[in-house]
Amino acid sequence: MTTIARDRELPAPAISPENQPFFEGTAQGVLLLKFCDGCGRHHYYPRTICPHCFSDRTRWIEAKGSGSIYTFSVLRLGTPTPFALAYVKLSEGPTMMTNIVDCDLDALEIGMAVRLVCKPATDGTMIPMFTPGAIA
Questions:
Q1: CATH numeric code, 20-132
Q2: Model confidence over 111-131: pLDDT tens digits?
Q3: pTM of the full predicted structure?
Q4: Nearest to 51 by CA among 75, 65, 34, 68
């Protein structure tokens, strides 16, 4: 069986001064993460204070835009469906809740390599999502 993900209307995200650089990155097709100079770890969701060590010595870095599916669920009820909701383990370490798009949803597997794609929300803000495949 083949189930292709449908495009669906994405609500506009709440943009704040704290996360604005993140969405400026997605507008360019780039995933930005916060990196803590205090403990040397990346974190997602973007915030000024490191959730690992509570340091305020954080800065933006450009992520590779790759990872692997940690877990996922294909939603088939309601509208519009179907679509895949997933946790993606980013190459830099953090786990990100996202959608898996532009693929056969029945072929998804835990551990599958994925790469970044950005899709527009209703206001045009680009939202980070992933599709199967390694970065070329």
A1: 2.40.50.840
A2: 999 999 999 999 999 999 999
A3: 0.90
A4: 34
